[in-house]
């Protein structure tokens, strides 16, 4: 029989957060090992429950949610997203500009699929949340990575972005607050990105899914609130701000210079129609979440569980010789650097395998986030303080052995 092969479209598509190292961890669990998983920002798995009012609302609405909805989504939750855009000072958004999806992920893939032809380039941050690179590749486009500068708290390097714009560049992806670095971008940097988009007629794809997971009293500015003469697509959802990843409730908002984007918007509408609609129970939850008590603020306040765990994990990691880490201002992750003089890692996936085998701790290697050098890794700081202390202790022990090699 002829071998059945995957599509060539997948040749450059990669999603290492759920990649081969996780597969190895699964096998080890089947053999009876207990693994500490620092690999995925899945809040529920660490006891961060969804707000009860959202859960109750889902249960109450289940009976009304068995039919298809409008392709873009139900009116009431889209209206609540519209109010949210007003709170974030994004101007001129109508109900028609709002699309609900099965998480932001579905809409991210849709937004690039509707846009790209073979050879079109999209500027994507490095490091990035790898769905972006994968989605651009899958759509036939070419991801071109721009540098986020660790020395500058992982802010995007504007000069590098400028250098990488070509006549084929269609869009720029901005992940703010950032996964995996925890950076929160300054308004100055955001304005500089907008200026480049304006000059080169780029669409701005703004992934703002962590916009309420902010520490130390920081506030978030939506890119789309800073201009109306550039086309913005802003992505958000319930997964992180409302600890509801499993409900698969996300949205995307088209704003700014819409007049010249009619054809693209037609493409978005076509793809939204083709997948019929987002899951209806998840749609109902959006309205309740956005209008309800914002309990995320309790978790990220000075005494909040997430703040305490961030502080502890950062302290424990940076106490290890040769490990440095920009302290996250936002989101759920740390992206530490291993000094290559002390840890001469050639293959960071191999490094992750070894850590897993020796210490039963699962991390994601930095190259999985399109980091160009094998000297970073990502951890979540979601486990409770006892488990964090245990896991950071195991990482420290592993690195001690690595130094003696
Ligand atoms: N964007 C970023 C930056 C993320 O970190 C994630 C999930 O981790 C997503 C998008 C996907 O979110 P959703 O659960 O809404 O699909």
UniProtKB/TrEMBL annotation:
Sorted UniProt keywords: Aminotransferase, Pyridoxal phosphate, Transferase
Gene Ontology MF terms: L-alanine:2-oxoglutarate aminotransferase activity; pyridoxal phosphate binding
Cofactor: pyridoxal 5'-phosphate
Domain Aminotransferase class I/classII large residue range list: 34-387
Protein EC: 2.6.1.2
Family per record: Belongs to the class-I pyridoxal-phosphate-dependent aminotransferase family.
Name of protein: alanine transaminase
